[in-house]
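Bug #77: duplicate submission created two jobs. Keeping one. Sequence:
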Amino acid sequence: MAPPTGSTIKGARERARAEITAEITAEARRQLAVEGAAGLSLRAVARQLGMVSSGIYRYVANRDELLTMLIIEAYESLGDAVERSAAATVRQQPAVRFASAARAVRGWALANPHEYALIYGSPVPGYAAPADTTAPAVRVTLALAGIVADAHRAGLVDPPAAVPFEVTPALRADLDRVREALEVDVPDQVVVRLLAAWTQVFGLVSFELFGQTRNAITAHDDLLDATATAMARLIGLS
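Kept job's structure:
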């Protein structure tokens, strides 16, 4: 039998490292559910995995790097869910697509409440998200904006004239940056409505998960559907 080559050994080491890293992040997610992001501890993760405290630093430099890994994983997972919804409904009417994407956001949040809190809840004291998190973070927004862009290209966006508002020069500069970031070439009025709809959907999901609608709302799924329909009409989706 031929001895293993250098590339074979390297590949085995990379696989082993990936497996251990996956175990570390899985344990970190478990701790996230129990201790919260602020209580996340590399030493505690190492202890639960049967590693010496110093050993974990071969895979994760510090707590902030571990938090970044969890944040990126959460954004990617949510982005996957909403992109799947947008792709699965591509032949349906824009308003139906938008409502489906909103349900995908809520469904993911309910299935992953602690990860949702990590990326949309209170900032973690002492932690500053690096640039690595930016691209994963905008995936869900790009998916929602893509639905509007598809509708605009098809001539299926007609914002209601009954809700006029002023777009100041300062706001227009912001909207230009949003258009560039989201790669959505639609009018100012539509971009403002898209931003309003985006924040409304996530605000509603956050209110549900963080208990702000307790003793007021029980039919959260119906409320989300009604809100998504209202937001689609606000944008002007047919």
